[in-house]
Task: inverse folding
């Protein structure tokens, strides 16, 4: 009998959140954990090694990689993919992934831990869990904000979790707004962030084409804002090209080295094509494989779009700039809460980046406290919550 099944669909930040919790739970000989990967449904290889070192087998949901469309339900994302993609999602789930998952969850575990309850394939997963009356814990995977065109009944967190492990007070407010009962919301922090301050991330600064002469390093960290529904893929790539054009003089003058760190779901080739014709296209480093934290350790400033990475940069003491999205503005509350600088298209971008490099916001400590209940004890908090839920839901020690 499995006490807890952990289900991932991302081969980076999902295991980074869940592996420490499984490791902590494994110290209790009466607690049996199982891990299931939906990564191949998202076209990603499963992180087998990360779980194997814990003695936990990672069960694959598919024997092959499949990318079936955008992860979120944003308006632009849904319009950018034909109905055939949504049909393919349904077909793969009905004929392969759903039955396989059903077998892996039989007999039923006492609790399932998931990082998402709204994007495909989690929307199908939580319906399966509801039919089988298997409770689940939603382990918050990223900062929360409303996505364009997403009805409230389809919002992240609104699908009926037995409990929600929220990062902090700000996230708790979001979950209450989407209808989660306050008694089901628990402030735990994020296990992925526990070791940031206790790890030595010092590395040699990466260089584009061997050029280490630039004075300072600016890290532009992208994320799939097209899948979130804020724009199309072409508009996202054009936004990055516009930014590069805006800081070209800084790169040519060797004031900065620009590194573009892509999200795991993004294509390096798409961005290389977007920069074709730029006088500095060969001087901009575009990377998908380099780990984020060593890059933050050498960055003098970080520029973000709409992602959790702003919090992580702040934990490294790196000044954060939020790039204005056309027709949208600054996503999330980084800029509104004066913890990050808003980078506007109405001003010269090079001038703003020079200012960002020396930006020191006194609002960062309060901002981090509002969004992270703990910076270093989240693993204990989540593991304790899991144990409490398993016991409360009627499981008995073995």
Result:
């Amino acid at each position: 009998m499995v006490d807890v099944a952990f289900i991932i669909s991302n081969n980076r930040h999902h295991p980074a959140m869940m592996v420490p919790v499984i490791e902590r739970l494994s110290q209790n000989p009466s607690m049996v954990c199982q891990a299931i990967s939906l990564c191949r449904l998202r076209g990603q290889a499963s992180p087998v090694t990360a779980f194997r070192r814990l003695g936990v087998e990672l069960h694959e949901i598919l024997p092959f990689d499949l990318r079936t469309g955008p992860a979120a339900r944003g308006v632009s994302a849904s319009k950018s993919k034909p109905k055939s993609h949504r049909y393919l999602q349904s077909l793969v789930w009905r004929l392969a992934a759903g039955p396989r998952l059903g077998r892996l969850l039989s007999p039923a575990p006492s609790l399932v831990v998931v990082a998402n309850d709204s994007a495909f394939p989690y929307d199908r997963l939580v319906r399966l869990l509801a039919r089988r009356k298997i409770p689940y814990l939603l382990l918050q995977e990223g900062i929360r904000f409303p996505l364009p065109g997403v009805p409230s009944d389809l919002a992240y967190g609104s699908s009926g979790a037995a409990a929600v492990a929220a990062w902090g007070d700000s996230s708790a407010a979001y979950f209450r707004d989407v209808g989660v009962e306050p008694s089901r919301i628990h402030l735990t922090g994020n296990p992925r962030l526990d070791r940031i301050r206790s790890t030595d991330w010092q590395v040699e600064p990466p260089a584009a084409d061997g050029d280490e002469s630039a004075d300072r390093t600016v890290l532009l960290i992208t994320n799939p804002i097209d899948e979130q529904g804020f724009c199309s893929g072409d508009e996202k790539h054009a936004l990055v090209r516009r930014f590069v054009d805006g800081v070209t003089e800084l790169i040519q003058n060797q004031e900065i080295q620009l590194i573009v760190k892509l999200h795991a779901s993004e294509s390096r080739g798409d961005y290389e094509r977007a920069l074709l014709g730029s006088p500095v296209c060969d001087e901009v480093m575009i990377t998908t494989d380099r780990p984020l934290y060593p890059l933050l350790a050498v960055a003098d400033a970080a520029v973000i779009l709409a992602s959790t990475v702003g919090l992580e940069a702040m934990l490294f003491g790196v000044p954060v700039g939020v790039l204005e999205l056309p027709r949208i503005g600054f996503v999330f509350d980084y800029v509104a809460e004066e913890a990050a600088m808003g980078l506007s298209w109405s001003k010269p971008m090079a001038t703003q980046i020079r200012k960002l490099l020396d930006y020191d916001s006194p609002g960062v400590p309060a901002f981090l406290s509002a969004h992270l209940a703990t910076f270093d004890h989240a693993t204990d908090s989540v593991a304790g919550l899991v144990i409490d839920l398993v016991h409360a839901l009627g499981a008995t020690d073995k």
Observations:
- The longest strand covers residues 216-221.
- The radius of gyration is 21 Å.
- Residues 83-104 form the longest helix (22 residues).
- The CA atoms of residues 260 and 286 lie 5 Å apart.
